[in-house]
Amino acid sequence: GKRTPTIIPLNPTKKSSNGSVCEDEEDDCFSDSFEAELLALKKNPREKMRFNDEDVAILDEWFEKNPYPDRKERKEIGKILMVPSKNIRIWFQNKRVKSKEHGKLLSKTTKKDSKKKLASS
């Protein structure tokens, strides 16, 4: 018959002072049953999370207001989008890196480069 694979966590879980299990100190103590339920619904916890276009539009709006949301804001966004706050945190980290890289690329391009881009499009 079919055997369900055992899932071994990448980080050993730690017990926090209030007794809830934490994956990392920063924000993923599932005192919130909402996030625990979301994770339980996910078939493969290691699978890459992809946001749809509507979600990205919402995340971009929040990013414009504040590229460094605190735990409370991430939980709020997570509830709106129905995803764990850990995924929100990672999206913001990646978005900050991309926007920094994008800024560097823009400052490095010369007038010649921008003319080439205009001619090719």
Could you describe the 3D structure shown?
The chain is mostly helical. It is 55% helix and 3% strand. The chain has five helices and two strands. It has helices at 33-41, 53-65, 71-81, 85-108, 111-120; strands at residues 14-15, 21-22. Strands 1-2 form a two-stranded antiparallel sheet. Helix 3 packs across helix 4. The longest helix has 24 residues, at 85-108. The protein is globular.
The fraction of residues assigned to DSSP E strands is under 5%
* Element-by-element helix/strand order: EEHHHHH
What's the β-strand tally?
2
Mean pLDDT, as a whole number? 75
The order of strands across the largest sheet is 1-2
Helix content: 55-70%
Pairing-aware structural class of the strands and helices? mainly alpha
Low-confidence stretches: 12-28
Question: In this structure, how is the largest beta sheet organized?
Answer: 2 strands, antiparallel
Number of discrete helical segments = 5
So what's the overall shape?
globular
Which radius of gyration do the C-alpha atoms yield?
19 Å
Q: Could you tell me how far the N terminus lies from the C terminus, measured between alpha carbons in angstroms?
A: 56 Å
Question: What's this model, at a glance?
Answer:
The chain has helices at residues 33-41, 53-65, 71-81, 85-108, 111-120, and strands spanning 14-15, 21-22. The chain is mostly helical and 121 residues long.
